[in-house]
């Protein structure tokens, strides 16, 4: 009972963060899922693969619920979402097939990549947080650069299970001079589409090790169920809360969660 309550709690926090920050709930899910898989006996050699697959499953619902709230308030940008999503899906699926779902991709490598990417995003976010106070949005962007953003996000999502929002939001905000709240809405839409494609892919994969726990491909519904229920309850509240916060405050809050994940992953490596 305590085990499933912990997953439910992670879903509550992940859903709130998804709606508030636009990065998906993966930043919480990748903290709790390795513990869950160790508890139910998933082989150590494939904990990274199961963590990524099930984090993306939870992230899909977190993004879906938050995006629905944005659509209700007219905060939906289908053109940008579609352009970014296409390249994100292609990059993500290729990465899953040729890198992640192979014996090469160990839990240690997974943690190193997560730490490296989050450290880079942390520095970038902190550097630009103060600029949000005087931020002026511009509309200078091209399909080619949006596609590059999508490819980077898809690669990040497939390698880490974070959903890609940690790439999309800084790219759109800092590289394209797009307001952080608009970037957040676009990020959630892309996360929803991209993570769904990767979940479907992982449902039809065959794990490299024998798994005794009930599973469909790399997805364990008994683990993701409590996550999704918790996410359903809080994702829309996160969106509502974000409308009341300053963009700079959202950036600083984003930085705090990045630091927490980095600390946890460094501990795991040591």
TrEMBL record:
This is Probable membrane transporter protein. The chain crosses the membrane at residues 6-35, 47-68, 80-100, 109-127, 147-173, 185-206, 218-238, 250-267. Belongs to the 4-toluene sulfonate uptake permease (TSUP) (TC 2.A.102) family. It is a multi-pass membrane protein. PANTHER family: MEMBRANE TRANSPORTER PROTEIN MJ0441-RELATED, MEMBRANE TRANSPORTER PROTEIN YJNA-RELATED. GO terms for cellular component: plasma membrane. It is found in: Cell membrane; Membrane. Keywords: Cell membrane, Membrane, Transmembrane, Transmembrane helix.
């Amino acid at each position: 009972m305590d085990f499933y309550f912990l997953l439910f709690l992670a879903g509550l926090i992940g859903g709130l963060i998804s709606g508030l920050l636009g990065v998906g709930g993966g930043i919480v899910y990748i903290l709790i899922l390795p513990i869950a898989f160790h508890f139910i006996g998933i082989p150590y050699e494939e904990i990274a693969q199961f963590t990524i697959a099930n984090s993306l499953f939870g992230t899909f619902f977190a993004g879906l619920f938050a995006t629905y709230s944005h659509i209700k308030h007219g905060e939906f940008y289908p053109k940008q979402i579609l352009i970014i999503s296409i390249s994100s899906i292609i990059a993500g699926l290729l990465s899953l097939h040729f890198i992640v779902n192979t014996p090469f991709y160990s839990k240690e490598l997974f943690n190193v990549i997560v730490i490296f990417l989050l450290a880079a995003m942390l520095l970038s976010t902190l550097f630009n947080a103060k600029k949000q106070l005087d931020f002026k949005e511009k509309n200078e962007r091209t399909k080619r650069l949006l596609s590059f953003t999508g490819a980077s996000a898809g690669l990040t999502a497939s390698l880490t299970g974070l959903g890609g929002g940690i790439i999309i939001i800084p790219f759109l905000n800092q590289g394209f001079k797009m307001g952080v709240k608009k970037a957040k809405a676009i990020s959630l839409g892309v996360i929803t589409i991209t993570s769904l494609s990767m979940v479907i892919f992982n449902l039809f994969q065959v794990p490299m090790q024998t798994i005794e726990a009930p599973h469909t491909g790399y997805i364990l519904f008994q683990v993701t169920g409590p996550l999704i229920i918790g996410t359903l309850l809080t994702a829309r509240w996160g969106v509502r809360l974000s409308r009341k916060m300053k963009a700079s405050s959202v950036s600083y809050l984003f930085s705090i969660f990045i630091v927490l994940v980095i600390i946890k992953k460094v501990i795991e490596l040591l």
